[in-house]
């Protein structure tokens, strides 16, 4: 086969993985038990690799909530290691981090065999570690999530035999979710699947857990992040593929991963998320760059890629229906596939695009738009909106793929 034929075959395989994958939520377990390669002294952080000294304040707070000074010295001495979440098939939204003792959603791709993981969404209270805020109230919520919440949810999910996330997304097609920054329909549908099993759990905190889930219209996001990571675990095993298989930001740098080169990151300065601010006194100077792994959902075609599915999010963040349609059309022009399980009624029942080809992004100079929440440099959520993905990461990825292909072809001779 020629190199072009190998690339085409590899891309076809990755699109098959992405469109035929069947993510099923199967368990809730401590990260040390569930995540391959997890270690007691390892903290997983969002986005591409970052030196500990460069961690922004929200990530320092989120990862080192107890005995901050002593723990930070341990990081600087190398006793606590920092690594990118997506290198371990994990996702951390906003300034969330993952340590060994934290409970994680476990999602299995029943088609391709991959597994993905994500910490639970902490709820609707704006004072959460997810946004780099810490206090006794935050610690109390963390204890609840690590204890009763994880125990009740885990038992219910295991007893259910697994909850099919494609079924949830199919039920909510046409209900206004773009499923990165807006997912009330998917969260409610997931809760409806889960509540019958929760009611069978004999635990004193059961009713509190049910109330927490019912009140959290973003509950689905973190489960779906684990689901996408499960699918990408297989996609990143396909050499020669030029399809984007990961992306995220650490507040300082933004990066993408490509299926053909696995966990290798291609990075540049993190863009700012433009949109609305929660407080009128907030300015652009207060913002961190793009922060979080939740945009991995967009690698699979959700969020900004399927903006037309959730035009209400555009209205909320200062955009229009036309903007929503244009964002999805941009994604279609640089993608190689389309999902069929969630047709969009007001878009001629088309599915949303999936499988961004880095060659198309560079060759056509069409940059996909990502949705996201913006973070304050000092911790907390600034607002929400969108960011154009920087072309530099795609150019670097193309160069990286060329080098990788040359190496593979040289080894084959």
List keywords for this structure.
Enterococcus faecalis V583 fold; v583 fold; globular; four-stranded antiparallel beta sheet; 16 strands; alpha+beta; about 425 residues; 2 domains
Helix-strand pattern: HEHEHHEEEEHEHHHHEEEEEHHHEEHEEH
Mean pLDDT rating: 95
How far apart lie the N and C ends? 13 Å
CATH class of the largest domain: Alpha Beta
What is the strand arrangement across the widest sheet?
4-6-5-1-7
Q: What is the number of helical segments per DSSP (H or I, 4+ residues)?
A: 14
Helix content: 25-40%
CATH superfamily of the largest domain: Enterococcus faecalis V583 domain
Basic shape: globular
How many domain regions?
2
User: Beta-sheet strand percentage?
Assistant: 15-25%
Residue ranges: pLDDT <50 for 5 or more in a row? none
Oligomeric state of the chains?
single chain
What is the CATH architecture descriptor of the largest domain?
Alpha-Beta Complex
The largest pleated sheet is described as:
5 strands, mixed
- At the third CATH level, what is the topology name of the largest domain? Enterococcus faecalis V583 fold
Secondary-structure class:
alpha+beta
Number of strands: 16
Gyration radius over CA: 20 Å
Question: How would you characterize this protein structure?
Answer:
By secondary structure, the protein is α+β, with helices and mostly antiparallel strands. It folds into 2 domains: 22-227, Enterococcus faecalis V583 domain (Enterococcus faecalis V583 fold); 236-412, v583 fold (Alpha-Beta Complex). Helices cover 39% and strands 19% of the residues. The chain contains 14 helices and 16 strands. It has helices spanning 3-20, 31-34, 57-63, 68-76, 136-160, 165-171, 184-198, 206-214, 219-235, 296-299, 311-316, 321-333, 358-364, 391-412, and strands at residues 23-30, 42-45, 81-84, 90-91, 103-109, 115-118, 163-164, 244-250, 253-258, 266-269, 274-277, 291-292, 335-338, 353-356, 369-375, 381-388. A 5-stranded mixed β-sheet has the order 4-6-5-1-7. The protein has a 4-stranded antiparallel β-sheet with strand order 10-9-8-12, with helices on one face. β5 and β6 (115-118) form a beta hairpin. α5 packs across α7 (184-198), α6 (165-171) packs across α7 and α13 crosses α14. It is globular and about 60 Å long.
């Amino acid at each position: 086969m020629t190199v072009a034929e190998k690339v085409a075959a590899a891309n076809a395989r990755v699109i098959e993985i992405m469109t035929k994958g069947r993510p099923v939520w199967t368990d809730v377990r401590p990260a040390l038990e569930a995540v391959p390669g997890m270690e007691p002294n390892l903290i997983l952080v969002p986005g591409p690799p970052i030196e500990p000294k460069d961690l922004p304040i929200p990530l320092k707070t989120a990862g080192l909530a107890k005995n901050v000074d002593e723990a930070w010295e341990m990081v600087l001495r190398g006793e606590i290691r920092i690594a990118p979440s997506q290198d371990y098939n994990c996702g951390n939204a906003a300034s969330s981090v993952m340590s060994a003792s934290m409970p994680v959603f476990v999602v299995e791709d029943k088609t391709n065999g991959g597994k993905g993981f994500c910490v639970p969404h902490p709820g609707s209270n704006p004072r959460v570690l997810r946004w780099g805020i810490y206090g006794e109230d935050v610690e109390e919520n963390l204890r609840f999530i690590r204890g009763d919440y994880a125990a009740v949810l885990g038992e219910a999910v295991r007893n259910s035999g697994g909850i099919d996330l494609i079924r949830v997304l199919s039920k909510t097609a046409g209900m206004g979710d773009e499923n990165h920054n807006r997912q009330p329909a998917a969260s409610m549908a997931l809760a409806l699947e889960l509540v019958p099993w929760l009611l069978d759990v004999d635990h004193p905190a059961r009713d509190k857990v049910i109330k927490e889930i019912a009140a959290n219209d973003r509950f689905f996001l973190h489960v779906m992040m684990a689901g996408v990571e499960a699918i990408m675990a297989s996609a990143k095993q396909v050499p020669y593929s030029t399809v984007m298989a990961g992306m995220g930001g650490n507040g300082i740098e933004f990066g993408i991963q490509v299926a053909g080169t696995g966990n290798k990151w291609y990075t540049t300065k993190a863009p700012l998320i433009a949109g609305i601010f929660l407080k009128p006194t907030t300015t652009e100077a207060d913002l961190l760059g793009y922060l979080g792994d939740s945009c991995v959902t967009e690698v699979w075609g959700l969020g900004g890629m399927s903006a037309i599915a959730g035009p209400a999010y555009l209205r909320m963040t200062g955009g229009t229906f036309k903007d929503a349609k244009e964002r999805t059309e941009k994604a279609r022009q640089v993608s190689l596939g389309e999902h069929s399980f969630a047709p969009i009624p007001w878009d001629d029942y088309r599915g949303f695009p999936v499988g961004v080809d880095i060659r198309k992004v560079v060759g056509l100079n069409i940059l996909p738009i990502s949705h996201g929440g913006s973070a304050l440099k000092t911790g907390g959520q600034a607002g929400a909106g969108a960011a154009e993905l920087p072309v530099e990461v795609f150019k670097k990825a193309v160069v990286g793929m060329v080098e990788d292909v040359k190496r593979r072809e040289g080894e084959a001779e």
